[in-house]
Every structure is written in C-alpha cells, then in structure tokens.
Design brief:
homodimer, about 325 residues, alpha/beta, six-stranded parallel beta sheet, six-stranded mixed beta sheet, 12 helices, about 40% helix, elongated, DNA-binding
Chain lengths: ~325, ~325
DNA sequence: CCACGATGGTGTATCGATACACCTTCGCGG
DNA sequence: CCGCGAAGGTGTATCGATACACCATCGTGG
C-alpha cells in the first residue's frame, strides 16, 4: 500500500507538500504541484480515508439507519437521500438496524455512528431509551413518527392528517364500514400505526359516524402475506365491511390479494386506500389509491437540518411534519 | 469525548491494560478487570472505531455495493446479506454506486472500499475497466452477470438457464409468439439481459421454433413505467404475441399493467413470466409465474468466498453460478 | 536457596494524514 | 542597502488504539 511518504519520496518533496497538493492548499508552486501529481498517478496513490478521518475528524460520509432495506418504503427513502446528498459532496451509506446479533443494536451504537459526519436515523423499531443514550453533539436527525428525545431535530410524516384524508375519502365515496388493516387499538407506542389509526378515528368522528374498534385489524407485522391472511380471516369470521384503509401500501398489496382470493371485487365491492405511495402502487391491479406523504419534503428538511448540525449549529431542535396528499386511483370509486 | 487514556487515568492502570480488558486479552487480573470495567461504565467510554481500524487494520465491517436500493431486487439482496453476515459477527453497510456526483464512481473508489474488511460488489452498471482498476488484494467478491476480471471470486445467477426455463414453460403451455420485454438484440455488454435473452433464443431453437427478433423489446431502462409503455406501443404497432417473458419481475409488473390497460387478459389472452421472484410477485393480480434465481445460494456462496479471502486465502478465484427454478403461478396457464 | 516459569502489567513505536508553527528565499519600497 | 511581507515549503506533534517487547513479582521444584 502506498502512502503519502512514498509519494513524497518519489517526487522529492515533504509529505506536507503532498498533502497540500491533495487538499488543494494554494501555497504550492505550479511546478511542484505537477511533479507531485505525476508521482501520485505513477504510484497509483489513494488517500487513506481512515487516517484522514482520525486526524481531521471529517469523513465525508453520512449514514442512514433504517430497519431494513427490503421494505420498499425504506429502499425508496434511501435512494432519495442518496440523490439529495450527492450535490453536497457527501456520500451516503445505509445501515440496517433490524439486523442485530443477539438483540444487540450494533447499528445504533455510539461507537459505530461516531464514524460518520452525520446520521439520519429512522426511529421505527427503536426504543426511546436507545436513542436517548446517544450523545447530543453527534449531528443527528430523527426520521419517523415515534415519540423521541426532543433534543434532536426530527422530521416526520403527516400520519394523522394522512389517515384522516384516506378515511374521509372512503367515507365520501359512500363507504360506511371501513376496515383498518394494520391499525392499533388505543395508544401503543405512539408510532406510525397509532397515528394513522387516530386519523381513521378522527375522520369518523368528524363525519358523525360511530367508531367501531372491531374494524381495526392488527396483524403481527406489516407484511403482505400477513395482511392477506388477515383479510381471509376477517371474511371467514363474517366481519362485514365495504372499504379498507391499509396502514401502508405494502399492507394494501396484501389486502388486494386477500380480497381477490375470497372473490371480492375492488372497487365495486370493497374500496381500498393505502399509505406511502410506493413506486409499485400505480402499477397494481387495480391501481392503488393512496396517501402520498411527501417524502421529497421529508428528505429536503432532513438534509437541511443535518447540514446545519454538521456545520456546527447548536440551536434548539426543530420538529417538522410533512404535508400529505391523496392520490386517487382505481382502487376507490 | 472520552478515550482509553481517560479510562486508564480513572482506574489507575495503563492504557494497555484498558485496551486488554476491552479486547478480552486474558492476562488481566480479575480485580483489575473489574475496576476498569467500572470506569468504562462510569465515563461512558466507547471505543473509537476509526482509530482501531487505522492501527489494527480490521473494521468488522463489510460493504455491499449495489446500483440502487430502491430496486426491490437489490433491497431484498441487501437484507439477505445482512442476515447472512450477522452470525459471523460482522456488520454490513450498503453503498449505492449509481449515485455518482458528476459521473464519478465514488462508491467504487479504491480509497472508499479500503475502509472495509471486505466488499461484495454488484457488477451491474459497472464497467470492466472500473473494476479492473481495483487492487487484487482487497477481499472482494463480485456479484452479478457481467464479464469481469477473472482474478476476483464471482457469484452469478443462472441467467441463461433461467431464461430458457421461462421460455420453455411458455412454449409448453402453448405459446407461439413470446414477446421478450427487456431483452437485447445480439450481444451488448454480456450482462444479465443478454444472458436471459440468450435463454429465450435457446429455448426457441431447442423447440425447433424460429427466433423472431422483432419480438425483443428493449426499453431504455428496466422500470415498471417504461415496460408498461413498451407494451402499449407494441400493441399499438400491431405486434402480435400470446406470451411475454419479462427480463425481471419489476418489468413484469409493468407488463401486467400495460396488458390490463389495453384490455388483454392474463393468462387467457397473454401468458406472462418474470425473473427474480420478488416478494411482491406472489401477491400481484394475477400472481406472477417467475424464475427463482436461488438468491439464498448466491448469498451463501458469496459470504463463504468473502470469508475465505478475509481470512487471507490467496488461491485461485472461484466462479459460481446458481441454479434456477421455475415458480408457477396464475400468470401462466 | 536459587533458578525459572507463570502471572499480571507497562512503555513506546506505530498506523497514515493533517494542523500549525516555523523557516527560506526573493522582490521591492523606503 | 536594509527591512519586511509574500510565496513556497518543511518538521513535528497529534488523532486514539494496538502490537510487541519488556519488566516485576511470586510460587515452586530441584
């Protein structure tokens, strides 16, 4: 492995001069610079980022911590962040927090996160205490909906509004019994599902309709297969409904499959609304009506806030909630 | 920030003893060990991974480089690798190579990759020369189908077999004009699409049927929206076909949508087969018949080969191709 | 009763790049 | 012709952890 020293020797200057050339410090003469650049090219020298990071403190890298990237929502989010960070000259790496060895949250350890200039941390699946343990002076922006230590900047989606929007839409289209798949009964962790379910409740109240908690189905996880089964079970149990609000598009995909399995037509027999507006949703059969949570706004704010912290700003934490918007497609009338 | 020195001072021992405690070196007395651990706990000390990496060489981290994680195939792959690496005590981070600033392949630079103990590099979207530039002694396993420098271990999917399998299945089910969406005309880069298209050709020849290249549609990218439009255009142009082999499930989703748009029924009018067996595919309407490329086998081999290199093995590079398997669902008869 | 091995612990150089203070040399104004 | 500032360049300490050689103490077998 070639180091600064090798380049210095090869070009007959000191290591500092080589370092200065690499970092574009202007105090190097043109002839010298060229000699050094030639030597770098010659030896195929590349800077050791680990050493630079240790000495200079900066790494040029930002981490995005999400539960798993095989959930399309997080995959799409990661790609958005990558694009948003590219113009700033910083590089994004993705860490998955669900993949813990023996329940240890390795991805979340202070030691690991400290390697980065900044961290975008999706709060989904994390506990308040885990996050509270983190150093306050690590540039960190929280994403997602869980209640989290207020000392951190926090950007979240408009879950309450979105849940209300989705449900209102169904009610306005004539639905009277709106199944909430992936909802929660009462407050659990104050997270995404709680908030979206609250929106569902709130829309019922606003319309002067009763809130029937037996319509709230809570599968063990927000996965397509489980949602599909939940629909089978509900129908088998004789539960009557004329619409479904699925807590995520992912769940909605399972719901659409489940309804098809039991011979119910969408939107004629049952209307369906999702949440997230995944890329795949407009290509489903039928195309999925869904709540668009303005991920672009989320990303924009998160990057802005993180840049501010990385630049050393110490001010109060900012808490942002994105606007939501209903995207009407074929799964509702 | 607290360092080893602080802990040493607080517990009245040398930094080396603290280091030995942290690394579980057995030459530390029980009483001392406990005193040190107490001090660590007290001060909230966490090891500086950057310093450790610089000195000790190891980082405990493996990078997976994929084009983008918003493509479900890569998202699912990343999650699989994360799970496969967890038992080895190593940590996975995901880098995206498509996100280049001004066309620069930052994720692929030697400097960046050298930070990791090992690298799993998806060759999709990379050039031979880019990869050839990399140091041979970096533990690296190539994934994917492009022709790449043979000095690296390389695990790829059985694209040729899979393409043949898919097409054979369609022909066996009575199809006579199989549209290949996302195929290529002749050899382009020897990559995934070329190989799958070859499989399509090969199946035709094996069945004694003519190979009609006008049936090969090549959208600009393997995206749902473009595939959907490609189907519209083909139908509008009067192209006749009774089946579609989509180069990926992602493309197949677009194809299903496109066929629905123009009023063609699947599988009655047109049968469809995809490739990848994404999680979503079994929940589509109709459920998608697809080629399962044994990603678990891919992951297993890749991890095995990488471990071998990280352990210092120097032997010849191994090249593995995974077996493929057809998963029959509702999109074929 | 001494030599020697086991046990427990320490000092120092080092990984590679960079911050910072300092040193030359040269041109030019007074 | 001297002094001073600018331009170009260098030496050294340092970031934090670890490898390695070395040191001290003590128990025990010959």
């Amino acid at each position: 492995m070639t180091t600064l020293k090798d380049v210095a020797r090869a070009s007959g200057v000191s290591v500092m001069t080589v370092s200065n050339v690499i970092n574009g410090v202007p105090r190097v003469g043109t002839a010298t610079r060229e000699r050094v650049l030639a030597a770098i090219d010659d030896l195929g020298y590349e800077v050791n980022l680990t050493a630079r990071r240790l000495r200079a403190g900066r790494s040029g890298t930002v981490a995005l911590v999400v539960p798993r990237v095989d959930h399309p929502y997080f995959g799409e989010l990661a790609a958005r962040f990558t694009d948003a960070l590219a113009p700033t000259g910083r590089h994004l790496v993705v860490e998955q927090s669900d993949a813990s060895k023996e329940g240890e949250l390795t991805a979340l350890s202070q030691a690991r996160l400290q390697q980065y200039d900044g961290v975008l941390l999706s709060a989904v699946g994390l506990q308040y205490a885990d996050v509270d343990r983190l150093d306050a002076d690590l540039p960190l922006v929280l994403l997602g909906e869980k209640p989290m230590p207020p000392r951190f900047d926090h950007v979240s989606l408009g879950n309450l509004d979105g849940g209300r929007l989705a449900t209102q839409h169904l009610l306005a289209r004539g639905a009277r019994r709106v199944l909430m798949v992936g909802g929660t009964h009462g407050l659990t962790d104050g997270g995404m599902a709680d908030q979206r379910t609250d929106g569902w409740r709130s829309a019922h109240r606003a319309a002067g309709l009763p809130v029937d908690d037996s319509l709230v189905l809570h599968p063990a996880a927000f996965e397509m297969g489980l949602a599909r089964e939940a629909v089978h079970d509900a129908v088998a149990a004789g539960l009557r409904f004329d619409a479904v609000f699925a807590v995520t598009d992912q769940v909605a995909i399972g719901v659409l499959a489940g309804l098809r399995d039991v011979g119910l037509r969408v939107p004629e027999d049952v209307q369906v609304v999702g949440f997230d507006n995944l890329a795949v949703s407009e290509h489903l059969s039928p195309a999925l009506t869904t709540v668009d949570p303005s991920n672009d706004v989320l990303v924009m704010h998160a990057v802005r806030l993180l840049e501010r912290r990385m630049a050393g700003a110490a001010g109060d934490a900012e808490h942002v909630v994105t606007p939501t918007r209903l995207v009407e497609r074929g799964s509702t009338r």
